[in-house]
Structure prediction request, 1344 residues.
Amino acid sequence: MSEQLKTSLGIWALGPMVTRFVPGGYQPDHAGDTTAQKVRRAVDGLGDLIDGYEFHYPAELNEDNLDQVREALGDHDVYCLCGGLHLDPRFGKGGFVSADTAIRDEALRITFRAIDLAGELGANMIIWPGIEGYNYPFQSPYRDSWARLIDAFGQCAQHCRKAGVTLFLEHKNSEPAMKIMMGNIGMTLHVIHKLRAQGLDNVKVNMDWQHLIMNGENLGEYAALLAAEGVLGHQHANSGWGTFDDDNMVGATAFMETLELALELRRAGYGRRGERLGFDLYPYTEDQVGAVRRSVLQWRFIDGVAARIDDSALREAQNRKDAIAAYELVYAALGA
Amino acid sequence: MSEQLKTSLGIWALGPMVTRFVPGGYQPDHAGDTTAQKVRRAVDGLGDLIDGYEFHYPAELNEDNLDQVREALGDHDVYCLCGGLHLDPRFGKGGFVSADTAIRDEALRITFRAIDLAGELGANMIIWPGIEGYNYPFQSPYRDSWARLIDAFGQCAQHCRKAGVTLFLEHKNSEPAMKIMMGNIGMTLHVIHKLRAQGLDNVKVNMDWQHLIMNGENLGEYAALLAAEGVLGHQHANSGWGTFDDDNMVGATAFMETLELALELRRAGYGRRGERLGFDLYPYTEDQVGAVRRSVLQWRFIDGVAARIDDSALREAQNRKDAIAAYELVYAALGA
Amino acid sequence: MSEQLKTSLGIWALGPMVTRFVPGGYQPDHAGDTTAQKVRRAVDGLGDLIDGYEFHYPAELNEDNLDQVREALGDHDVYCLCGGLHLDPRFGKGGFVSADTAIRDEALRITFRAIDLAGELGANMIIWPGIEGYNYPFQSPYRDSWARLIDAFGQCAQHCRKAGVTLFLEHKNSEPAMKIMMGNIGMTLHVIHKLRAQGLDNVKVNMDWQHLIMNGENLGEYAALLAAEGVLGHQHANSGWGTFDDDNMVGATAFMETLELALELRRAGYGRRGERLGFDLYPYTEDQVGAVRRSVLQWRFIDGVAARIDDSALREAQNRKDAIAAYELVYAALGA
Amino acid sequence: MSEQLKTSLGIWALGPMVTRFVPGGYQPDHAGDTTAQKVRRAVDGLGDLIDGYEFHYPAELNEDNLDQVREALGDHDVYCLCGGLHLDPRFGKGGFVSADTAIRDEALRITFRAIDLAGELGANMIIWPGIEGYNYPFQSPYRDSWARLIDAFGQCAQHCRKAGVTLFLEHKNSEPAMKIMMGNIGMTLHVIHKLRAQGLDNVKVNMDWQHLIMNGENLGEYAALLAAEGVLGHQHANSGWGTFDDDNMVGATAFMETLELALELRRAGYGRRGERLGFDLYPYTEDQVGAVRRSVLQWRFIDGVAARIDDSALREAQNRKDAIAAYELVYAALGA
Prediction:
């Protein structure tokens, strides 16, 4: 990996930075920006640090603003489209899991259109089913909800196959639904196994780092496991404190866990088949371009440390599960 | 406590139910409602279940809409005004803790006006310093921030004293600031001790139940401790899953913990000096009036069970720390 | 379910109650008890409340003490044998995942003997791979560890098939390994899918309730999902505060979650094919027999409430995801 | 701080490494070691890396083995004695909080003897009230328990004053009691304020890092706050994953948080009045001397990075709460 991993950026990092307490956002000066304007701001500020961009469909990118956005992108590409049902209040109680056929059909229709557009653009499709869940015990018919969820993912995967699109599934334990059904990597693998049983093998995993961190899922272990299963599809790089979905700058916390992830991505040859490092940041009160730039630079530093770890010595220590020898190697790479 | 505790309701339960993903809210039909309209809806739907209401200053109640709101309130009162700095993007990096004198002064000015209005209305003042914190390690000058925070609380308490207002401090560990400085009941007591050392004794605690639950703070213990210290000022009743600030209906989860709290409130004689049970709910996708009504009714059921616990037998069991005997009494009160 | 679910009890509830701080146990008077003595104490104290018992192999039940234990059991049966690698310091860095062939082979040999004994006794086999994990980042060769873990489970499942034994897999996120690889229900399903792909279908899930609770895994949802997948094998009933593996009495906390689980077990017809309610308790400082009895009685109360919920009305509410209507039904069943 | 902070080590790092599952320990070869033997092993292996040692009274150090231990210590000192009620099953339901006068008096008597010995040795006294709590809701008479706890701390502080000993209080949220009453730094400050009100000012705080980390208490903030209050007494250095009390090697995780702590300790002049860096490690399956040595060396590396941070530039960034500028300085110090 003498050359850097290619990168992408979720454009939502450049919005007004809304919270439930401040609907107008912590950065209200960006409230009126069109997607094209956000892209232009990002491209101007970040240049070659970011290779491509990611957009929610239809809220951020759709058939109507496509030309404008492309112009703003210049020679950058659309790397992923992302399902945006969670941005639409009609799906507040779920889309794919809804027992209301009209709502569910509409959720699928919108997602299919997103997939079609991804196909046209040569982009990947991310589905993060953050509204497919519930807020209360006793509120949900779990068995039916799960059947509907798997069925919907199956329809989406099939639609992706027709469109020549790779589908990345992304998990999270909570928010916006308090209990999201596909709540951890294990449940994501469960979904993938169910789809494989239907012959659908174009589905991989998008690892949103803070979603793992807030779940107690150790980044390096999961990257290695997903790579071994052939489903390590994409990364949403960020960091956080461990409980909420902070979407903080990469390497701000969870430094050692991020460093181990860099090592495991290297071991897995991540990037060789075109995989990228996506950035999913939400810089509430920070300069947005600055937060992205810091994240890229901090990742490069961390990845550089990973490159300096004596991996054959580390493998030998790991076979003995010798944490002391392992850390001696890690700190040596840090310069100790 | 043959008669029910008096109640109050935070009017924000009747808003559009915003999330960071849906700035227009899950219930956008309520987006345009004035506070008076929300009050009317609440009063019409809830009647005598709710005695008074609570409002953020100035976002929900201020000098300009006071007459309208009062008219809508009918014979219900304004029980608390709540500081609303967290609703104002100017204070995204903190108000009381800001090193920028202009911002800090403005935060204090607004809060003083809120206190003045509370004084005129005979209401209590709640300060929940949710924006007084930080999002990143290395971001804050902690020593200065703490000094400014304590100083600001002192100024507020002094202003309250002049206005004849009781100040309720409310803690939380996170959101909107990822790390809120006054993050647990212990730190709230620390603040109160610091203010007492300045001779300020008009400061009590508002226990937001879900803020305790998400902190691992056992409701009953803290109610008993705060009562013993003479600082059990107010309750914000709700429930949740244990990690986020769900603001769910009372008794939806944490049932046993809520039951024990009811018992400890009875032991403390809570309500005898006019204390009320405030409801702080955020029914994202539920009928708002219905969620409040359910909460009141579920509280009454739980409180009724607490009343049936044989307290002298329980005290005897507790002196031996005999959990088995204790639970036999509790389940007997439930009807087992 | 007019008749009660059959029950079983993990005999470890009757030991000296060790902690890492008190190796002799909080109840050192039980330190010298043989397994037969513990069984006799349990049978005498609990009678028909408990139908069968569960034992770790070889620490608690083995070829040598089998006759004694059977005599003590009287007409109670051995319902499960449990793998006990976590009780043996030789496997402190893992057994199935060990890169040391001698250690791994020994781990498998011991487990096979346990399975053989389970087969002879007509019992089920539980494997909770609590020592298959790691304590530090950088300590483990994840890819190899996972391959060895899946392979070992496959060998165990195959051995079970030959012995006519059903294998129950039990997850946990942490303790004794700080990071246990099969750390949640999703990862358990992943393992089961991998084994199914090898043609092994005699593997189901043992839901240890506190292991789910401390993981944020909502009991009712998972019971419904596992039942739908045909892998809801066994229950280890208990409760706790939500962070550690407290193994407290059933219904002491997580009351609503336990009630919802009771409802979902009823919906799934749990018990009709011989499934039981196992109790996995660790009453550190309580009377052991008393803690088990309380747990059974509290479960029966909770299950009785579940039976009174108007399920057709609830299903109707759930199809609308109407939490308010759902809770009205739940509280009505409680007697509100 | 051109010279290193002086250090101390809790001798329990050199024991058999017990868990509740393995009473004989993961390292049973150390099960029979006397304290003097452990000290000799530590002194031989660690030499000048560790200046002094810490011991629980009476389990590890007492009047009977004092001479032996002192001989083994050579020119190293006893830096702290630690209360050891949690090691004694008689206090399984609490010592200081017990309603049983005989038990409470015995708990106080033992603690007073520990203080006396600390006084003779010129050592500090640590009380970590880990058994002063409860396992269940409804189990405890909270008001009485808190009154007894504060009273006992008062008696201990008074006894310390007579003996010329500084008392360090150490908090934790859970384990061994599931709910420890003095569960966070805020509650520790509450206790200290209560004691100050009695005129007792010889009480400071021992920050056990993992106890803060598992509580979501950010190390740097609390060090700064405690220093500002004049109660930053001692450190128990370690690390962990964020949920349990892992007592892992320093700098294994929470790297950035530890780095910020190093910075704040420097800002506070920690060490200038003789404060030390104590190590509280529990290397379950690692070489014990090796784990301590790694911890010291990793701390020195981290502290060296802290020394390279441009503090005046950082202060300037912090006054603006500019996280981006802050991290640029931090990564520059790391060598980026």
Summary: The longest helix of chain A spans residues 142-163. Chain A has a mean pLDDT of 97. The interface with chain D takes residues 216, 241-243, 249, 251-253, 255-257, 285-287, 290-291, 294, 297-298, 301, 321-324, 327-328, 331, 334-336 of chain A (CB under 8 Å). Residues 157 and 167 of chain A are 6 Å apart (CA to CA).
